[in-house]
Amino acid sequence: MGKRIIQQARGKGSLTYRVRKKAFTRKISYPMASGEAKIIQLEHSPAHSAPLARVQIGKDVFFTPAFSGAYVEQKISIGNQDTNEGNILHLKDIPQGTSIFNIERNPGDGGKMIRTAGSSAMLTKKLDSGIVVTMPNRKELILHPECRATIGIVAGDGRILKPFMTAGRKYHKMKARNKLWPRTSAVKVNVVDHPFGSGRGKRPKPKIAQRNASPGQKVGHLRPRRTGWQK
Q1: Is residue 1 part of a domain?
Q2: How many CB atoms lie within 10 A of CB 19?
Q3: Residues in the chain with pLDDT < 50?
């Protein structure tokens, strides 16, 4: 008797393919207050690729991705016109050509975009309809001028350049977020476990699934515009 293919198991959402709640003990957000704040601690979070900065402003404490060059006891400003690295400003107050990260998608949501280690976006234009931000993939987004962002680049650049060295380290890293690892190639499993299984000498099979195929058969390309190598 065959077993569920990976797509079915992940879609079911069992404990095997569910993120551990313990990893997400720190929630990234922006405070409602404005003024001078201080970085009181730089912390490691299993759920985030970048180190998190514990920032205090008055009696409020919040977490945000640390910027490159941040250190403990460093002072940053929130809501002011100062454009030093690490300061949190509204997009309307940030000059054009500035690198920013932890950008709010909607005003007040606490920052949802550009939070990966070593990443940053750039504020390129200011239009009547909104602020144009160029993402790392060169895609342009038009956001509300009241959305906030942090000036600088997220710390941890070069993280992927360091090898894991051992399979055990890779296992524990992926286990923190319940990522699918190690991944088994579909043609390596038995024919009863996957439509691409067996292969009788690894002969390639059609990888275009029908749009109305069942969850156990909907694998490979789904309504592709084209397949194969582009000449």
Answers
A1: no
A2: 12
A3: none
